[in-house]
C-alpha cells in the first residue's frame, strides 16, 4: 500500500513538472515567434522605408506585451508566502498543540510540520517547500485558523489534522507546490497582460492576443491540475476516516463547513460594515464566539450541519463537492479509536491570537477604534438602522426635489400614493415594497430613539431590533403596533394618516430633521459618511502601474533609436519615394524567337534601339517600323500568331496617364500591359517612363 502510494505520488509529481514546463515552453514559443516577426518587419522597413510606415506600432506593442508576459512568469516567488494575517506560533505558546501535531504525524507515518501559523479564518491547510521541481523538499508548514481552534471539539480537531497530514502521507504537497508555482505564474502573466491592454500600451493588439493564448493554456492547466487535487482531497478524507472513524470525520467536515459559513457572515455582514465607520470589536474572536453561542444562531448552525449547502461553486474549486466528500467518508466501515474529549488547553498564551487580530485590523487603510464587545454591538445596531433610514431620506429628496428631506416628506409622498416611485429610488430588489417598509421602520425607529423612547440592539439574525427605552411588555406591544402601521403605510396610501397620528401621540416632531448619528459614540453614520477601508489602490496594482511606466520609457527609447536609423536610411536613398527608375521595366535585350532573325547592328554603333529620326532607318538591313514610336522586329511570315503577339509600340508616359487609361486607348487590359512590360502586380508608373503597348492596327480610337 505504501509502495503504491509512493509510485502514485511520483507519477503525479511528473505530471506537475510537465504542466509547469508547459508554462515556460509556451512563453518561449510566443517570445520567439514575436521576435522573428519584429525582425522581419524591421528588415522590410529598412530595405524599403516607404512601404513599412507602421513598424513603430509593431515594435512598440511587442515590447509592452513581451515585458508583461516575461515579468509575470519570472517574478513569481518559488517559496509560498504565508497568507495575510498569519502569525507564527512558537512551541512555548502552545506545547499541547505541538504535541498533538507530532503524535498524529507519527500515527500517519509521515514527517511532522516544522512550523505552525495561526490564521484569521475557519480553515486548516498544509504546505511543503519543494525544490528542484519537487525532487527535494524543505520545511513543512501547518496553517490553523483561530476560530477553528476555538470552536471545534478535540475529536473534530483531530479529524481535521488527520486530513491535512494525509496530504503529507500521500505526497500531495509536492504536487501542489509545483502546480501552485505554475498557476501563480499564469495568473501573474494574465493579470499583467490584462493591465497592459487596458492601459492602452498594447495599441497593436499584442497583449490581447497573448492573453488569449496564455488564458487557453491556463484553462487546460487548471482543468488537469484541479482534477488531481480533488482526487487528493478524497484520499486525505479517507485517511482521516481511518484515524478517527467515518462518523467523526463526516461530522467534523459538517462542523467546519457550518462554522465557515458563520465566520463569513460575521465578518462580511457585521465586522466590515462597522469597520468602514471606523469601529471594531476589541476582541474579534471572542465576539464571534458570542455570536455562535446565540440560540438562534446555534439553531441555524445545526440546520447547516444537517443539510450542508454549497453556494456559488465554481469549476475552479480545488475541493470536490461537499456531498461527494461526505458520501465517500460515510461509505467506509473502519475507523480508529476515540481520544478523550477534554484535553488541556492547546494554546496557553493569548499573545499569538492577539497578534492575528492585530494583523487583521492593520490591513485597513486607517487604524479603526477598538470598542468593547458590548459597546461595539450597540454601535453596530445603530449603524445598521441608520443606513436604510439615510437611504430613504435620500430617495425622498430625489423624488420631491426637496433640499431638506424629513420624516414628514416621506409621509407626504406615501400619502400621495407614490410608494412605487419611492421604492424604485430606494432599491432594485425583487420586493421593493418590503424594502420600503423596512427603511421606513428604520427611519421611524431612529426618530423614536432621538426622543429616548426606544433604542437599537444588535440581532445576529435580523441585524438590528428596536426595543422600548423602559424595556417593558407594554412598550414592546406599542412598538409592535407601530411596526404594523409602518408596514401598512408602505403598501397603502390610506394607512399613512394612522401612522402620522401615532407618531404625533408619541411626541415625534415629523417635520424636524431625523438625527442620523451614532449616539453611542457621537459619530456620524450612513453609507456616505464612513471611512472607506477599500478605497486605496491595491499594492499589486500600484506596483504593476510602476512597472508599466518603466516599460513605457524603455519602449520610447527603442522607438527613438530605430526612428533615427530609419530616417538615415530614408535620406540615404536616391529616390525617397522608392519609385522605379524610368524605363526600368524595359528589357535591354530581346530574346530570339523561333524563326526570328537576331537584331542587326547598325554600322558604327552598338546594337540597341536607334533613334526615330536616325537617317539609317532607310538602311535596307533594318526592318521598316510599324509606327513612329518603335520598330517591328523581323518575323518569319510563316508564323502569323507570333507576328500578332509581338506587334507592340513604345510610348512615353505623360501627365495624367494611368495603366487603366492607357489600356483603354490601346484596346487592351491592365493585366496585359503588366505582362508585356514585366511589371508583375505593380501598377505605379511615372512621367517620362517608357512603356510597351499593343500597336494600333486599326483606326485610332476604335476597338474591334
TrEMBL record:
Q: Enumerate the Gene Ontology biological process terms.
A: proteolysis
Q: Which CDD domains match?
A: LysM, M48_Ste24p_like
Query: What are the LysM domain coordinates in residue numbering?
Result: 649-693
- This protein's major location comes to membrane
What membrane topology is annotated for this entry? Answer: Multi-pass membrane protein
Q: Where are the transmembrane segments?
A: 15-43, 55-74, 208-228
Query: What keywords does the record list, in alphabetical order?
Result: Cell membrane, Hydrolase, Membrane, Metal-binding, Metalloprotease, Protease, Transmembrane, Transmembrane helix, Zinc
Q: Where in the cell is it found?
A: Cell membrane
Q: Which GO terms describe its molecular function?
A: metal ion binding; metalloendopeptidase activity
List, alphabetically, the GO terms of the cellular component aspect. Answer: plasma membrane
Q: Which domain of life is it from?
A: Bacteria
Q: Mind telling me which SUPFAM superfamilies this protein's record contains?
A: LysM domain
Q: Required co-factor?
A: Zn(2+)
Q: What is this protein called?
A: LysM peptidoglycan-binding domain-containing protein
Q: Which organism is it from?
A: Micromonospora radicis
Q: What is the lineage of its organism?
A: Bacteria, Bacillati, Actinomycetota, Actinomycetes, Micromonosporales
Amino acid at each position: 500500500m505504501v509502495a503504491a502510494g509512493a509510485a502514485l505520488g511520483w507519477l503525479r509529481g511528473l505530471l506537475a513538472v510537465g504542466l509547469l514546463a508547459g508554462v515556460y515552453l509556451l512563453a518561449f514559443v510566443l517570445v520567439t515567434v514575436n521576435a522573428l516577426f519584429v525582425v522581419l518587419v524591421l528588415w522590410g522597413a529598412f530595405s524599403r522605408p516607404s512601404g513599412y510606415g507602421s513598424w513603430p506600432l509593431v515594435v512598440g506593442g511587442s515590447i509592452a506585451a513581451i515585458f508583461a508576459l516575461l515579468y509575470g512568469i519570472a517574478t513569481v516567488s518559488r517559496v509560498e508566502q504565508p497568507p495575510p494575517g498569519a502569525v507564527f506560533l512558537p512551541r512555548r505558546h502552545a506545547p499541547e498543540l505541538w504535541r498533538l501535531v507530532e503524535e498524529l504525524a507519527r500515527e500517519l507515518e509521515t514527517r511532522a510540520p516544522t512550523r505552525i501559523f495561526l490564521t484569521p479564518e475557519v480553515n486548516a491547510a498544509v504546505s511543503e517547500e519543494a525544490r528542484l521541481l519537487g525532487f527535494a523538499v524543505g520545511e513543512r508548514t501547518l496553517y490553523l485558523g483561530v476560530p477553528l481552534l476555538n470552536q471545534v471539539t478535540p475529536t473534530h480537531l483531530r479529524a481535521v489534522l488527520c486530513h491535512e497530514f494525509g496530504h503529507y502521507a500521500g505526497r500531495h504537497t509536492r504536487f501542489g507546490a509545483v502546480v501552485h508555482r505554475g498557476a501563480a505564474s499564469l495568473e501573474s502573466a494574465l493579470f499583467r497582460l490584462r493591465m497592459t491592454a487596458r492601459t492602452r500600451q498594447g495599441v497593436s493588439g499584442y497583449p490581447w492576443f497573448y492573453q488569449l493564448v496564455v488564458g487557453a493554456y491556463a484553462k487546460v492547466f487548471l482543468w488537469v491540475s484541479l482534477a488531481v487535487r480533488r482526487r487528493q482531497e478524497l484520499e486525505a478524507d479517507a485517511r482521516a476516516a481511518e484515524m478517527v472513524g467515518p462518523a467523526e470525520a463526516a461530522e467534523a467536515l459538517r462542523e467546519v463547513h457550518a462554522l465557515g459559513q458563520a465566520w463569513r457572515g460575521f465578518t462580511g455582514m457585521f465586522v466590515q460594515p462597522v469597520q468602514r465607520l471606523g469601529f471594531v470589536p476589541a476582541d474579534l474572536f471572542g465576539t464571534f464566539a458570542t455570536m455562535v453561542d446565540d440560540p438562534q444562531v446555534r439553531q441555524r448552525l445545526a440546520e447547516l450541519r444537517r443539510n450542508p449547502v454549497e453556494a456559488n461553486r465554481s469549476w475552479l474549486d480545488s475541493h470536490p463537492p461537499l456531498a461527494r466528500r461526505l458520501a465517500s467518508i460515510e461509505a467506509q466501515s473502519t475507523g480508529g479509536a476515540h481520544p478523550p474529549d477534554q484535553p488541556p488547553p492547546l494554546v496557553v498564551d493569548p499573545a499569538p491570537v492577539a497578534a492575528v487580530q492585530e494583523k487583521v485590523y492593520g490591513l485597513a487603510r486607517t487604524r479603526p477604534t477598538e470598542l468593547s464587545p458590548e459597546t461595539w454591538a450597540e454601535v453596530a445596531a445603530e449603524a445598521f438602522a441608520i443606513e436604510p433610514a439615510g437611504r430613504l431620506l435620500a430617495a425622498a429628496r430625489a423624488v420631491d426635489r426637496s433640499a431638506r428631506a424629513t420624516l414628514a416628506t416621506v409621509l407626504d409622498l406615501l400619502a400621495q400614493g407614490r410608494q412605487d416611485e419611492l421604492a424604485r429610488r430606494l432599491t432594485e430588489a425583487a420586493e421593493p415594497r418590503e424594502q420600503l417598509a423596512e427603511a421606513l421602520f428604520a427611519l421611524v425607529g431612529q426618530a423614536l430613539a432621538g426622543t429616548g423612547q426606544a433604542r437599537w440592539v444588535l440581532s445576529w439574525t435580523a441585524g438590528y431590533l428596536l426595543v422600548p427605552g423602559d424595556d417593558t411588555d407594554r412598550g414592546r406591544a406599542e412598538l409592535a403596533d407601530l411596526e404594523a402601521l409602518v408596514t401598512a403605510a408602505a403598501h397603502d396610501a390610506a394607512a399613512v394618516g394612522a401612522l402620522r397620528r401615532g407618531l404625533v401621540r408619541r411626541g415625534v416632531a415629523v417635520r424636524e430633521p431625523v438625527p442620523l448619528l451614532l449616539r453611542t459614540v457621537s459619530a456620524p453614520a450612513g453609507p456616505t459618511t464612513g471611512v472607506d477601508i477599500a478605497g486605496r489602490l491595491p499594492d499589486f496594482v500600484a506596483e504593476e502601474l510602476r512597472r508599466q511606466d518603466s516599460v513605457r520609457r524603455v519602449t520610447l527609447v527603442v522607438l527613438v533609436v530605430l526612428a533615427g536609423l530609419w530616417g538615415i536610411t530614408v535620406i540615404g536613398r536616391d529616390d525617397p519615394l522608392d519609385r522605379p527608375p524610368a524605363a526600368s521595366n524595359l528589357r535591354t535585350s530581346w530574346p530570339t524567337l523561333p524563326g526570328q532573325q537576331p537584331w542587326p547592328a547598325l554600322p558604327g554603333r552598338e546594337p540597341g534601339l536607334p533613334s526615330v529620326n536616325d537617317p539609317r532607318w532607310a538602311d535596307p538591313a533594318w526592318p521598316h517600323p510599324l509606327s513612329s514610336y518603335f520598330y517591328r522586329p523581323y518575323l518569319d511570315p510563316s508564323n502569323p500568331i507570333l507576328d500578332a503577339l509581338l506587334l507592340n509600340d513604345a510610348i512615353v508616359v505623360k501627365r495624367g496617364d494611368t495603366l487603366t487609361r492607357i489600356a483603354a486607348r490601346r484596346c487592351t487590359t491592365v493585366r496585359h500591359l503588366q505582362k508585356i512590360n514585366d511589371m508583375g502586380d505593380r501598377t505605379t508608373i511615372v512621367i517620362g517612363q517608357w512603356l510597351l503597348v499593343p500597336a494600333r492596327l486599326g483606326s485610332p480610337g476604335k476597338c474591334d
